[in-house]
Amino acid sequence: MKSAIELAMEKVAKMPKIEAKDIEGQKQSEMREKGEGLVNRLLNGSLRTKNLKNELSKIPEEGLKFVKTAMLDTLKTAVSLEDPSINQLVFEIILLIDGNANVDVINEKLSPLIDDFQQQKQLLYATLVKEERNRLREKGISGSGMIPNVYETELWEMRLNELATDYRDKLSDVFDLFPRF
Q: Quick one: which of 52, 160, 169, 171 has its CA closest to 113?
């Protein structure tokens, strides 16, 4: 009769071997998740920017590159064409990740895109209001005080999403200016 230790050792011997590359891939994945989590906490206010250096100091040196890369990738998705105040927080976080980052150059490239997006959005709004007024006029509904609420229509959502997607594609030039690790 075999002891419990012998049975356990036999089971362990039959288990597939974990290769070093699998372990390394798992560690990298964990570090990327850590970086995404840090940025999300910074953006939602549950982690203050002044505490980021302390959080980064807890990460082993070999994982820091993956954490910072994930943080920058997550920040790219946070860049807002709608709300410049979010972008200021994004720039502040970038500087905390890489003190040598030139956020002024990033901002110079981003600002005209935001301005153009806002103009296109206003133009889209005016166009949809005009179309809706014409549609209502054909039904006999009109008046100088009538301003259709196009913000609540599916067409507005669809066209605004299309516009935002077009500008997201244009942001790739801005993202090329983000630091790399």
A: 171
Low-confidence stretches of the chain (pLDDT < 70) are 1, 18, 20
Which spans in the chain are helix H?
Answer: 4-14, 20-44, 52-57, 61-78, 84-97, 103-138, 154-170, 172-175
Q: What is the DSSP letter of 79?
A: -
Amino acid at residue number 149 = N
Q: Could you tell me the maximum CA-CA distance found in the chain, to the nearest angstrom? A: 96
Q: How far is CA 106 from the centre of its chain?
A: 16
DSSP SS3 for 90: helix
Reported pTM: 0.76
Q: Rounded to an integer, what distance in angstroms lies between the CA atom of residue 57 and that of residue 136?
A: 62
Helix and strand numbers, DSSP H then E, in the chain: 8, 0
What angle, rounded to 10 degrees, do the helices at 103-138 and 154-170 form?
Answer: 160
